[in-house]
Amino acid sequence: MNSKAAPSTPPGLGSIEAVIESLAGVGYIATRQIATAVYLAHHLRKPVLIEGPAGVGKTELAVSAARALGFSLLRLQCYEGLDDSRALYEWKYGKQLLYTQILKEKIGLLTDGTDTLEGAFQKLAGFQDLFFSREFLEPRPLLQAMEQPGGSVLLIDEIDKSEESFEALLLEVLADYQVTIPEIGTVRAKTPPLVILTSNNTRELGDAIKRRCLHLHIGFPDPALEQRVLRARVPGLADALLAQLVAFVQALRHDDIRKPPSIAESVDWARTLVLMHAPVLDESLVRDTLGVLLKRESDIREVDARLGALTQAAVASAAAPTRKTTAAT
User: Fold this and answer.
1) How many CB atoms lie within 10 A of CB 86?
2) Could you tell me the CA-to-CA distances from 302 to 25, 256, 263 in Å, in that order?
3) Is the CB of residue 272 less than 8 Å from the CB of residue 289?
4) According to the model, what pLDDT value does residue 187 have?
5) What is the largest CA-CA distance in the chain?
6) How is residue 258 annotated by DSSP?
7) Which long-range contacts (CB under 8 A, 24 or more apart) does 219-227 make?
8) CA 165, 166, 167 angle in degrees (round to 5)?
């Protein structure tokens, strides 16, 4: 029998459909696969490890889930050299030093009436315990997530940028939703957090961390999903421009360039085109704004040589469904 108490369920996590609806309410268009992973993460009390290329919405899922559920968002950005003092907790050394100075100044008063060294030590023992108490502890994201009474979303972002030793540090947190502090004891989560780990696959993660997680891969969206995302994220985007924009971006992702544009770059480009009051795509407009969509100079040069053909193909592709519908009518 599982001894872990079942977490209470917010309305936004009551069903897979409720997850889709609650995320859509804050502008995140989730596929059923994504919504299922979030639903299971709560009900099975399992972290979700999200893998996929940069910019496809991995981090945004955690941010949107926190907003949709009304939870606190605790974010731990991973990097090489990350250790427990930045992830779990550290002691407030300045406050401890001040406390030491006060003790030094009051040592005579504190040991007054004690004639032996053993007696003096006994009187000071209680103050030594206070020195490593919760009052002198500075919680970091992992510990903060354990202490949120109303629930939280714990985002461990880009875990593949950390070292393997950090994965070992996470095992207790991910397995039992608790943190052990040698001087104080074990801090168990008041309400288990919804834990989301992201990875851009820059290195292979260890089997131990993967076993404790549900796996979710988020790749580049298909045209229909990308249009839904852009409609939700970019108000004022005309239908014709939306179709052409998506057709152009989808073509680039199938092109031979080093860094294809992600959904984040599609959103930025759509906002740029709306800001420039563009009714439709044309070669000059695309050339002027290509740096919003592509972030490598080699990719920009490669695409620029064929920009006219790519733009015309995107406009024609976007218009094709309209022609077919008109003919059918």
Assistant:
1) 17
2) 39, 9, 21
3) yes
4) 87
5) 105
6) S
7) 219/52, 219/53, 219/56, 220/53, 220/56, 220/253, 220/260, 220/262, 220/263, 221/56, 221/263, 223/247, 223/250, 225/29, 225/31, 226/250, 226/263, 226/266
8) 90
C-alpha distance from residue 62 to each of 33, 234, 328 (Å) = 15, 20, 43
Q: What b/e readout covers 282-292, taking b as 16+ CB neighbours within 10 angstroms?
A: eeebbeebbeb
Residue 223 burial by Cβ neighbours in a 10 Å radius (0-12, 13-18, 19+): middle
As to burial, measured by CB atoms within 10 angstroms (0-12 exposed, 13-18 middle, 19+ buried), residue 94 is: exposed
> Distance (Å, rounded) from C-alpha 167 to C-alpha 154?
15
Sign of CA dihedral 11, 13, 14, 20: positive
Q: Give pLDDT tens digits along the chain (329 positions).
A: 344 444 578 899 999 999 999 999 999 999 999 999 999 999 999 999 999 999 999 999 999 999 999 999 999 999 999 988 889 988 776 665 776 666 665 565 555 556 555 655 566 555 555 666 677 788 899 999 999 988 899 999 999 999 988 998 898 888 889 888 887 888 898 889 999 999 998 899 999 999 999 999 999 999 999 999 999 999 999 999 999 999 999 999 998 899 999 999 999 999 999 999 999 999 999 999 999 999 999 999 999 999 999 999 999 998 875 444 433 33
Enter the tokens of residue 144.
Answer: 């903060």
Q: What order do you get walking across the sheet with 194-199 strand by strand? A: 72-77, 152-157, 194-199, 48-51, 214-217
Task: Look at residue 75 and give its three-state secondary structure.
Answer: strand
Percent composition of the chain: helix, strand, coil (DSSP 3-state, to 5) = 55, 10, 30
pLDDT of residue 50: 98
- Token pair for residue 27? 């502008």
Element (H, E) at 273: helix 263-275
Contacts for 261 with CB less than 8 Å, ≥ 6 apart: 55, 249, 252, 253, 269, 293, 294
